Amino acid sequence: xxxxxxxxxxxxxxxxxxxxxxxxxxxxxxxxxxxxxxxxxxxxxxxxxxxxxxxxxxxxxxxxxxxxxxxxxxxxxxxxxxxxxxxxxxxxxxxxxxxxxxxxxxxxxxxxxxxxxxxxxxxxxxxxxxxxxxxxxxxxxxxxxxxxxxxxxxxxxxxxxxxxxxxxxxxxxxxxxxxxxxxxxxxxxxxxxxxxxxxxxxxxxx
Length: 206
Fold this sequence. Notes:
Radius of gyration: 15 Å
Shape: globular
CATH class: Alpha Beta
Number of domains: 1
């Protein structure tokens, strides 16, 4: 069973539907017992970094997420869910992120011909081999919607990147923790393959 963390940050149902399409049982929940017993945990999300951290704290989910990561349950952050795993964001100065991974979230710089937010399809380049991308060729296109991007402190955890006026760390893998800045649930066949690879990881594969 895949637990999808509910903290009022939107985009939960499209993630739930994508896993259902793959034949996976899911639970959209903030119940600690359910989450910590799940085969895999997903932290989706759209919206502002500070508001999201406020909700995680309000619902008592902050320490539970850190506990889930420490228990080595396969964990997947999506979009805002990726950003929250890191230490801080330009979007919400003074607000501490989960700090499970080291790095910061920066504003995408203005540039000629670039619209902010970065919205639409972009191709991935592979920095290092990543289990989420097993069987997916480099250059595959995925769907992004964001105004802030990850700059990870440790390049070794960066598995895929994209270019949009700046190098965007688009996907990371640190032990049992995986995350994508893009939306696999909105990325067609490529995105479903990424989610299928995550499911395989929860079952001891990949």
